[in-house]
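Summarise this fold before class:
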Amino acid sequence: MKKIIVLGAGLVGGEMAVDLSKKHMVSSVDISKKNLDKINSKHINKICLDITDTKSLQDLIKDYDLVIGAVPGFMGYKMMKDVIEAQKNIVDISFYPEDPFGLDELAKKNNVIAIMDCGVAPGMGNIIFGHHNETMEITDYECLVGGLPEKREWPYEYQAVFSPIDVIEEYIRPARFVKNKNIITRKALSDTELVEFDEIGTLESWNSDGLRTLINTMSHVPNMIEKTLRYPGCVEYIKVLRETGFFSYNEIDINGKKIRPIDLTAKLLFPKWEMKDGDKDFTVMRIIIKGVEKGKNVEYQYNLLDRYHNNTISMARTTGYTCTAVANLVLDSQYKKVGVSPPEFLGEHFKYINNYLKERNVIYNVNKNK
């Protein structure tokens, strides 16, 4: 049995620890004892610790075979750097804003395998992309994706399974997409469209910065876009909050005290967005890949509709199990590429990862049109 340590015991990190504990010796680490107490498994070693301190983290992980990163995005880059400096392999879902390839040279120098963005989107969407990139000349890639509560509840009709600040980042980080090989940058929440989904109905899509590494690693593909999905009406009130300054990182003075508006906003929104016991969610994703395969024009469409299952939220299943599948690839020495790897580099392992997800009832249905 291999020894794995999962950094972060939130809704996703906790489920990854449980999944990995079926086959490996697992420790789960979080600064919150409340989060650790929610992990319902006697087989997981629980450690309450602040891992923002580099020495504490590096001392902690020295005896483990693999590190799993599931911390909030604002902590992710430093955490990954600390792990790489400790010469430990890592698979990460932290979705940090910094350029991951800034750590590539360090990872190669330390002979470390570092796989980032290994969730659902980015994550499985990139793996599907990489899989088809090996067998066809892709001309168009479109990914529509969202995680939503089953119950639409006023005022936000939304619940967050990640750090509230990470969610807010999606609303303020400039969105990049590729059109005719040109990188286009728009404000997040722009170009809204209404899209129909079977069993769900109408959702609202808008530009977000989900392409991330694909913009560079798949620069030969002329058209690429990723859009986030929410219930209709979401964009308008989020824009109002953004334009009023509630998401600003710049400090303002209130009665002699300096505060960042985003910290106040996150504090106020979290109770509204927090998933309560009994709440259920679903994940919906539609990927369309067009191009030329064996001399013929083809179009592949992948559809995912995953729901809360076995007392586990969908976003933990779709994000977490992609990560744990890849973790097993690394532990079994099936993936050995040293340096920083975005998930599209794992395209050749699509079949293994997809089967791993199927075993856990996360099903990607695919249709091919000629």
